[in-house]
Design a protein that fits this description.
- By secondary structure, the chain is an alpha/beta fold.
- It has 2 domains: about 15-185, Phosphoglycerate kinase, N-terminal domain (Rossmann fold); about 190-395, 3-Layer(aba) Sandwich (Rossmann fold), CATH 3.40.50.
- The protein has helices spanning about 5-10, 50-60, 90-95, 110-115, 135, 140-145, 185-195, 215-220, 235-240, 255-270, 310-325, 345-355, 370-375, 390-395, 400-409; strands at about 25-30, 65-70, 100-105, 125, 150-155, 180, 205, 230, 245, 275, 280-285, 290-295, 300, 305-310, 325-330, 360-365, 385.
- The chain starts with a helix and ends with a helix.
- The structure holds adenosine monophosphate.
- Adenosine monophosphate binds next to strand 14.
């Protein structure tokens, strides 16, 4: 089933969220995404994901329920102490203001006893789900063991909704009448719906980043949904070279040039206006101290590479952004990690923030664009910043996310 069809389903069968349940005296088994970054001292360096899950947890506790939290952390190979969720207990306690109990394994006797002993208002955190290979394998018996730990299953982990793992998808079948989305996941679904299916027009997608190959399916799906498409970042040069431009030493996927021409043709036939950079900041080396010059995008000298959008491009993009009522942004306009080549991404962020202030709906999602909006302080100036990288991209590609389908089944 296509993701879009799932959205249509929402309209007929209102999607169930935690607001549809009274958790009084109930134990919620919540799949959260607490895959947070830790430093060498095992301290949480960015608690965004914990903060994002807070409204769901607090609503359940305030109803008079208790919470069993399950998550993965990193990519452990079997049981590895460095990936233990015990490292983040104190951070969760300080974010929620509630004591957090801990089970040393996510399934088995100890977890069942500690979950069974939970009183209303209490929280139990389970050890890393991925200490068991069966989690990623989507093992049914493992999912059944998890299901014993709660009365109602709540999925609030958009970051893993594209995985058919035991805790994200399979476990839902053990809660046929008592499964729902948490606030965070519901908000993610609504935001994507607002861009792809219920958008105020004109709609603009900005796709940047390094490679055409990683965004092809997104571009093809999005062409049916938007009036304008800005293509920026390293992807630009495959399009420009395919049209006969001289791109110097800029990054290019030669084997994707035919595809780039096909995308331009498809866009034309669908009435989508494509906006490519007209000028770039070209550098004589891939580093922050390189010599730079502004070049016409079709005439980049050999030995020079385009690493950011130029001033004329940014003025064009600003005009398009201001004209649109719905904006999706995925991927930076340049090598934003280096100060010298961050101006394009910052300028685009300013344009989107401004348009949002004037009433447009803006969604930022997928990988590096989220890092960029946070780095430059735009996260509070756009309508919504998605918490899912891969999940967001797969949604934009029009794919069914198994974690979402499992709740709707
Ligand atoms: P993606 O993960 O596909 O969104 O790509 C993000 C990466 O693209 C960032 O690390 C940027 O540094 C990189 N990038 C953006 N523009 C360029 C460019 N013109 N040349 C090389 N890399 C770029």
């Amino acid at each position: 089933m296509q993701f879009m069809h799932l959205y249509l389903l929402f309209k007929f069968f209102k999607m169930k969220t935690i607001n549809d349940f009274d958790f009084n005296n109930k134990r919620a088994l919540i799949r959260v995404d607490f895959n947070v970054p830790l430093n060498a001292n095992f301290e949480v360096t960015d608690a965004t994901r914990i903060n994002s899950a807070k409204p769901t947890i607090i609503k359940i506790l305030e109803d008079g329920g208790s919470c069993v939290l399950m998550s993965h952390l990193g990519r452990p190979k079997g049981v590895q102490d460095e990936f233990s969720l015990k490292h983040i207990i104190s951070k969760i306690e300080s974010v929620l203001g509630v004591e957090v109990k801990f089970a040393n394994d996510c399934v088995g006797k100890e977890a069942e006893e500690k979950a069974g002993a939970l009183q209303p208002g209490e929280i139990l955190l389970l050890e890393n789900l991925r200490f068991h290979d069966k989690e990623k394998q989507g093992d049914v018996q493992f999912a059944e063991q998890l299901s014993k730990l709660g009365d109602i299953y709540v999925n609030d982990a958009f970051g893993t909704a594209h995985r058919a793992h035991a805790s994200t998808t399979i476990v839902a079948k053990f809660f046929p009448q008592s499964k729902c989305f948490g606030h965070l996941l519901a908000k993610e679904i609504e935001s994507i719906d607002k861009v792809l299916n219920n958008s105020e027009k004109p709609v603009l997608a900005v796709l940047g980043g390094a490679k055409v190959s990683s965004k092809i399916t997104v571009i093809e799906n999005i062409l049916d949904k938007v009036e304008h498409l800005i293509i920026g970042g390293g992807m630009t040069f495959t399009f420009i070279k395919a049209q006969g431009g001289n791109i110097g030493d800029s990054i290019c996927e030669d084997d994707k040039m035919d595809l780039a021409l096909d995308i331009l043709k498809q866009a034309e036939s669908k009435g989508v206006k494509i906006h490519l950079p007209v000028d770039v900041i070209a550098a004589d080396a891939f580093n922050n101290e390189a010599n730079i010059q502004v070049c016409d995008v079709y005439h980049i000298p050999d030995g020079w590479q385009g690493l950011d959008a130029g001033p004329r491009s940014l003025a064009n993009f600003d005009a398009v952004v201001n004209e649109c009522r719905t904006i999706l942004w995925n991927g930076p306009l340049g090598v934003f990690e280096m100060d010298t080549f961050s101006k394009g991404t910052i300028s685009l962020g300013d344009s989107i923030a401004n348009s949002t202030k004037n009433g447009a709906f803006s969604l930022v999602g997928g990988g590096d664009s989220v890092a960029a909006v946070k780095q430059f302080g735009f996260d509070n100036k756009v309508s919504y910043v998605s918490t899912g990288g891969g999940a967001m991209l797969e949604s934009l590609e029009g794919k069914t996310l198994p974690g979402i389908a499992a709740i709707l089944d």
